[in-house]
Write a structure and sequence with these properties.
Length: 212
């Protein structure tokens, strides 16, 4: 379970949010909506350990995560809006790099896991392709496979449907539902309301539910 207690963030003395409290059960989906500039990406970056917070606690399965942006743990996997794939690497190399370098897994281990994840995300035929040879939706799914390869406690998405057409958006919904059935806990930041409605679970409206 993810528990967030009294999280607070300020930028240059301006409070972006404060007293942010929430829980997401294991296998749950939290959808985060709200107008532009309200603090959704900042929240995601704090969760991922990329931005510091001023106060509060983030507890994942009983373990308190450091709020330090230099946090080393890989508890939260993030799928960024622009996917951040390594352009010089193939799909398989993108997925296996962190398990190989960070987790120091054996080749047999990370290759097998990569093959399984790519099959699950319907990318087996793109294994040896480079990012420039993929569609937006395919890049998105490679980014999901790459995050899942590190077995994170939480998978978080920043605007996962931006730039995708209706069909690719439906595909993202299907992937999120499939991962939910597998017990993956997910946080989805979006301002795409029809897409938000297609997801089950709690909705956090940053415009209405969050103090500032
Ligand atoms: N590094 C920074 N320094 C100062 N202010 C910042 C910084 N990053 C974000 N902000 C401010 O914090 C506020 C929240 O920004 P954030 O990117 O989290 O909004 P958002 O809800 O994700 O918006 P969008 O939907 O447009 O992406 C904005 O007013 C923004 O200008």
């Amino acid at each position: 379970m993810l528990t967030i207690k009294n999280l607070k963030k300020t930028y240059n003395q301006k409070t972006i949010f404060k007293n942010l409290n929430l829980t997401v059960p294991n296998g749950g989906i939290l959808t985060v909506v709200g107008p532009s500039g309200i603090g959704k990406t900042t929240f995601l970056n704090i969760l991922a350990g990329l931005t510091s917070a001023d106060a509060g606690k983030i507890i994942l399965d009983g373990k308190q995560l450091e709020l330090d942006p230099r946090r080393k743990s890989t508890d939260v996997g993030v799928i960024f809006q622009d996917f951040n794939l390594f352009l010089q690497y193939t799909v398989t190399e993108n997925v296996t790099l962190a398990p190989k370098v960070v987790k120091k897994e054996r080749p047999s281990q990370y290759q097998k896991q990569s093959d399984q994840l790519l099959a699950e995300l319907d990318l087996s035929d793109k294994k040896d392709s480079y990012p420039f040879q993929l569609s937006g939706g395919q890049k998105q799914r490679v980014s999901i496979a790459r995050a899942l390869a590190m077995n994170p406690g939480i998978l978080a998405y920043d605007e996962p449907t931006s730039g995708l057409d209706k069909k690719a958006t439906e595909r993202v919904t299907e992937v999120i539902q499939k991962l939910q059935q597998r017990g993956v806990t997910q946080i989805v930041v979006t301002h795409d309301l029809p897409f938000a409605k297609s997801l089950t679970g709690e909705v956090l409206d940053f415009g209405k539910d969050v103090e500032r």
